[in-house]
Amino acid sequence: MPLRFDNAFLRELPGDPVAGPGTRQVHGAAWSRVMPTPVPAPRLVAHSAEVAALLGLEPWEVADPGFAAVFGGNALLEGMDPWAANYGGHQFGHWAGQLGDGRAISLGEALAADGSRHELQLKGAGRTPYSRGADGRAVLRSSIREFICSEAMHHLGVPTTRALSLVATGEAVVRDMLYDGHPRPEPGAIVCRVAPSFIRFGSFELPASRGDTGLLRALAGFCIWRDFPWLAGDRAGAPLARLHAEGAFDEALFAAWFHEVCVRTARLVGHWMRVGFVHGVLNTDNMSILGLTIDYGPYGWIDDYDPDWTPNTTDAQGRRYRFGWQPRVAHWNLARLAQALSPLFREAAPLQAGLDANAATWAECERDNACAKLGLEDCGDDDLALMRGLQALLHRAGADMTRFFRALAEVDVDAVAPSAEPLRGAFYDPGRHAAEADALDAWLRLYAARCRAGGLPREARAARMRAANPRFVPRNYLVQQAIDRAETGDEAGIGELLDVLRDPYGEQPGRDAYAALRPDWALDRAGCSMLSCSS
Ligand code: AMP
Ligand code: MG
Questions:
Q1: Which atom of ligand 1 is nearest to the CA of 101?
Q2: Burial of 308 (0-12, 13-18, 19+ CB in 10 A)
Q3: Ligand 1 centroid to residue 532 C-alpha, Å
Q4: pLDDT at 534
Q5: Can you tell me whether residue 125 is helix, strand or coil?
Q6: Fewest beta carbons within 10 Å, which of 119, 379, 414, 461?
Q7: Best CA proximity match to 503, nearest among 151, 72, 247, 170
Q8: Which ligand has an atom closest to residue 121 CA?
Q9: Which residues touch 497 (CB under 8 Å, ≥6 apart)?
Q10: What is the domain extent for residue 458?
Q11: Catalytic site residues?
Q12: What angle do CA 465, 466, 467 make, to 5 degrees?
């Protein structure tokens, strides 16, 4: 395989002098060298043709048994030099100390022909110094979930880590899926995920928590140099050591960088709120410095609109990570990052300015979402109120978020009292629907009046809505169906679902089944509505 590697993270940052997987606290180091633990029978189950192409891999190279060996952790390509990253994090609001890559092992940073950088990371590749008593493995069901959803997010236009491959290991992994005292062996798998950087908020929090300002500064400088080079202006592309020697990493540069992280994070959450994605575990170790969706665990998709819904059973009590709280949780997480970065600043003002920019950007995104989802040219305060009124209505009526907004483009807004007929297929409960029918008609009258007064022409409005309101999202039950089939030996469902999700905003006639309401059986089925962190 013609991959070229430049492992800057290892080269430029201090590492752990000890190699191998022994569990330990690792001080003064950003990474530990550790080899993937070989698996009995690596076999390629699925791959993303788009990511392979991004890396310059030919189809025959992916089909070669050598590919499954490498991306199952049994072989290395020249230039690969595996490591696990060291980081900490706040979990469910509490500082959790050192976490690190407990089952993720990075193989290397691949450079594509166009110069772009793609870190290749195996999730489930075996124990590392950060495994803390766990086995370092991942099961097939959670690997299918990450593989499908991360690629689907990309096609939806949501910033995300990608997935190159899904490899079955041929090894059983024991999990107690519902944490109810019923552990059972499940098929194991490894996803190779791909991103320009896997640095997390928690990567900065750990050295800060230990008073290690030297490592903190080195990591922040490295992150700017590698992941945000344009911030260095004229000096972009200069060697990192020279930037340090010239004192390039001053407060102004750190401030610009933090500002950028805050803005990107707001935009990321803006996308989640637009498409109905609930991350489920927004701990600071699961927050990407690049503003990517990262660490697909007990995530979920909104079916019936409910801002208080969380897919994560571990979070059922406090519902900290509920859909509607994601903007404020992201802001809270950024405040933890600001605290961690504070030793790099003499004053708090630049950090506060970043946090304020996060809030302001989210407010803009909320407006933009309202505007695009309703098909308006521009969005004023009244329009935001119109959207909020609709959201409250959808919640009360138990309407399906995806189906409702998609169908809203079909409503005839030239009528003074538009018919709600196109929206009929967006409701789960006839009783709740009927109870809100008058409210819906009243809302449609307001909406139609707004569209007629300075709105877009009919076709332009519908096109704008169809570009913002997907017809196809990886609803939990759809992914679970692919998992059920795969666990009984029929893996074709993974590729079939991914193929639909390649064009989430298209009509794709004949594929209505993938855009249907959630079936009732999925309501109380594990994997569809109840997800634990057990993966
Ligand atoms: P997560 O909830 O997936 O973000 O994981 C939190 C921490 O637990 C991270 O440090 C993970 O690498 C680690 N972890 C989760 N599952 C495992 C596992 N099966 N083996 C080792 N470490 C794990
Ligand atoms: Mg994580």
A1: 12
A2: exposed
A3: 13
A4: 83
A5: coil
A6: 414
A7: 151
A8: 1
A9: 148, 474, 478, 479, 481, 482, 514
A10: 371-468
A11: 285
A12: 90
User: How far is Cα 155 from Cα 160, in angstroms, rounded to an integer?
Assistant: 10
Q: Is 175's C-beta closer than 6 angstroms to any atom of ligand 1?
A: no
Q: Is residue 131 part of a domain?
A: yes
Q: Are residues 109 and 119 in contact, defined by beta-carbon separation less than 8 angstroms?
A: yes
Quote the tokens at residue 448: 């139609």
Task: Compute, in angstroms, the gap from residue 526 CA to the centroid of ligand 1.
Answer: 21
Contact 404, 302 (CB under 8 A): no
Inside any domain, residue 525: no
> Which pLDDT score, from 0 to 100, does residue 518 have?
97
Q: Is residue 117 in a domain?
A: yes
- For atom 23 of ligand 1, the residue with the nearest CA is 102
Cα 156 from Cα 498, distance rounded (Å): 12
Which residues of the chain register pLDDT less than 50?
none
Ligand 1 centroid to 120 CA: how many Å?
Answer: 18
Cα separations (Å) of 89 from 15, 96, 141, 352, 493? 19, 6, 26, 21, 36
Tens digits of per-residue pLDDT, 161-176?
999 999 999 999 999 9
Q: Would residue 500 count as lying in a domain? A: no
Q: Whose CA is nearest to atom 13 of ligand 1?
A: 102
Ligand 1 within 6 A of CB of 295: yes
CA–CA gap between residue 214 and residue 192 (Å, rounded): 32
Tell me the per-residue pLDDT of 400-439, one tens digit each, with 9 for 90 and over: 999 999 999 999 999 999 999 999 999 999 999 999 999 9
User: From the CB of 136, is ligand 1 less than 6 Å away?
Assistant: yes
Of 440, 468, 496, the last residue of a domain is 468
Q: How many domains does the chain have?
A: 2
| Final residue in a domain of this structure, among 468, 500, 530 | 468
What is the per-residue pLDDT for 455?
Answer: 77
pLDDT at site 379: 87
